[in-house]
Amino acid sequence: MGLFSSSTKQVPETHNLPQHVAVIMDGNGRWAKKRFLPRVAGHQRGLESVRQLVKTCVRLEIKYLTLFAFSSENWRRPPDEVTFLMGLFLEALDREVAKLHEANVILKLIGDRSQFNADLQQKMLDAERKTEANAGLTLTIAVNYGGRWDVVHAVNQLLLNKQPIDEISEADLTPYLSMSYAPEPDLFIRTGGETRISNFLLWQLAYTELYFTPVLWPDFDETAFEQALKSYRQRERRFGRTSEQLVSENGSL
Ligand code: IPE
Ligand code: IPE
Ligand code: MG
């Protein structure tokens, strides 16, 4: 699998569609609360939004979709909610992997998996192995993931593999980051109305276009995704250059 150098070095071809979309799926609890349901009912419904978005990305031929499902900070939630979420992951792996495989999806899981129970760890590994030779959408689920963990983990891996080291460059480090198989996200979406990154892909989001919507994750449907894509199409990605430079580099002047 090829490694990508930072996508901020050159102004990319003006793609109308993002190649890589990364999403913080937030607002499940509030969705449930509004309906006088337990928070976990929101997580259950949120899974339906995941299914829909995956389908849409496959149809649109978006190459990479990365979803934040559980952060390294989410262990701080009430034990019952954490247990429910673990059960939901297990169930989703059992039910969905065959369908993802049929749809030619490559499934990847990023994050510190050592904290999960053995059964779940095994299912994650099996799912990745089953789908690794596919050629369609790469769907990455971030579980027990933290952006700071990712960077520190990468540094530690580098130290293990390349001793002794006096100084490292960005290029030395990036192969060890957990998303080294993908270009950096073009479009970041956070549902649920909060306007923060919450320790998601800190390194990789350096030049990503950020989109925040008040729509709660279980309500995030195709129309809501279309709006995010529309907003993305209107952005001008400059990566430090001036607007005029972009026009001349694209040959339209
Ligand atoms: C996001 O929804 C799902 C996870 C973090 C697992 P929340 O559960 O954070 O929903 P709100 O933010 O409380 O509404
Ligand atoms: C971020 O949502 C993590 C996931 C969606 C998995 P949170 O709801 O946990 O984020 P904060 O704590 O409100 O920032
Ligand atoms: Mg939340």
Any chance you could write out the topology, listing elements then pairs?
Elements: E1 20-24, H1 28-34, H2 39-60, E2 64-71, H3 79-102, E3 106-110, H4 118-131, E4 138-145, H5 147-161, H6 170-173, E5 187-190, E6 209-212, H7 222-233, H8 243-249
Parallel strand pairs: 1-2, 1-5, 2-4, 3-4, 5-6
Bound molecules: 3-methylbut-3-enyl trihydrogen diphosphate (2 copies) and magnesium ion (MG).
Residues 24-26, 68-71, 74, 194, 196, 198 line the site of one 3-methylbut-3-enyl trihydrogen diphosphate.
GO molecular function: transferase activity
Active site: 26, 74 (proton acceptor)
Pfam families: Prenyltransf
Summarize this entry quickly:
By secondary structure, the chain is an alpha/beta fold.
